[in-house]
Design goal:
Layout: E1 12-21, E2 24-34, E3 39-43, H1 50-57, E4 65-70, H2 75-85, E5 86-89, H3 101-109, H4 118-124, H5 140-152, E6 158-162, H6 170-185, E7 189-194, H7 197-203, E8 206-211, E9 214-219, H8 221-226, E10 232-238, H9 248-252, E11 265-266, E12 271-275, H10 278-291, E13 296-302, H11 306-314
Parallel strand pairs: 3-7, 3-8, 5-6, 6-7
Antiparallel strand pairs: 1-2, 1-4, 8-9, 10-12, 10-13, 11-12
Length: 321
């Protein structure tokens, strides 16, 4: 069976995917179309259905309904062949603690009829100095790089990375990002799940924002952010007892904010106001607060991000979801 995308091919095609665990609907009619050679991101909070979706696509979990076509084939027809062509890094990879880096990669290389030289993979994941070290002696970031090496040693056409940097410190996270960017440069297709918006913005060509098992939005990170219609997001807070004396409608009428496609949003600590002209909006906001006798407690701005897109779609912050 072959699969066709609008441009003539799909590395991964998902239609109407559904999966329920007892009374929890993990995936609810999800559609995806991943193009060959792109890094495609699934961005969403924990429990959004990302991992379940990936496990179905990897052939690890059976869906209740829907169609999954991987590299033009189905798991029912070509499971053995597909396993030779996929690289998989699970959300949690349990490696044998007493094996060395070299022994671990040799073991995983033995699972494939063809693949990459183990020494090349060790160099790729920057573990040359740890090749004789046991897994138990590796840091968290080194273990993640080793797990990525295990996913790449079979020289896959399609790579699944399920939250590859969760729990890592910022330096280790950026090392993994560098490796993924190197992998992208080889032209392989990557499907990446994450709940880090900056990770998706840096690595992914296109992103599907997922919540409650459904795709809420799908496009390039830049276009998703541009859809907010805002140049900046202005955050401000006032004295706690003064909060009820201002409304989203009043803020939307402020000069420099009227052109934004998304309304102001009350947060736990204040308000977030999308604006199209910061130089007009901030003076107008300050004047409006003064007119209402609202004492300003805090004021700051930031460029719109995928976090703001998620908030506009779901009404809550990604990190708090």
């Amino acid at each position: 069976m072959t699969a066709s995308a609008p441009d003539g091919s799909s590395a991964l095609l998902v239609r109407g995917l559904r999966k329920r665990y007892d009374d929890v609907v993990a995936v609810d009619g999800l559609d995806l179309d991943v193009r060959p050679g792109e890094c495609f991101g699934l961005l969403g909070p924990n429990g959004a259905g990302k991992t379940t979706t990936i496990e179905i696509c990897e052939g690890l979990t059976e869906p209740d309904a829907g169609e999954v076509i991987v590299l033009g084939r189905t798991w029912a027809e070509s499971g053995r062949d597909l396993r030779e062509r996929l690289g998989i890094q699970l959300q949690e990879t349990q490696l044998a603690e007493k094996l060395t880096v070299l022994e671990t990669l040799r073991l995983f290389r033995s699972f494939y009829a063809r693949g990459r030289a183990v020494d090349d993979v060790i160099a790729l994941v920057r573990l040359e100095e740890k090749r004789r070290a046991r897994v138990s002696a590796l840091s968290g970031g080194q273990k993640q790089r080793l797990a990525l090496g295990c996913a790449l040693v079979g020289d896959p056409d399609l790579v699944f990375l399920d939250e590859p940097t969760t729990g890592l410190d910022p330096q280790a996270r950026r090392q993994v990002w560098d490796l993924v960017e190197q992998l992208k440069a080889t032209g392989r297709t990557i499907v990446l799940t994450t709940h880090y918006m900056e990770e998706a913005e840096r690595l992914c060509d296109r992103v599907a924002i997922v919540d409650h098992g459904r795709v809420m939005a799908l496009d390039t990170p830049r276009r998703l952010v541009a859809g907010l219609g805002a140049d900046q997001i202005v955050f401000f807070s006032v004295a706690e007892d003064a909060v009820p004396r201002i409304t989203a409608d009043a803020l939307a009428a402020i000069a420099g904010a009227a052109g934004a496609t998304q309304p102001a949003r009350a947060t736990d600590g204040g308000w977030e106001l999308p604006v199209t002209a910061t130089h007009e909006a901030i003076p107008a906001l300050l004047a409006e607060l003064e007119r209402r006798a609202l004492p300003l407690a805090e004021l700051r701005t930031h460029l719109p991000t995928l976090e703001d897109v998620f908030v506009s779609l779901t009404g809550r912050a990604l990190r708090d979801a």
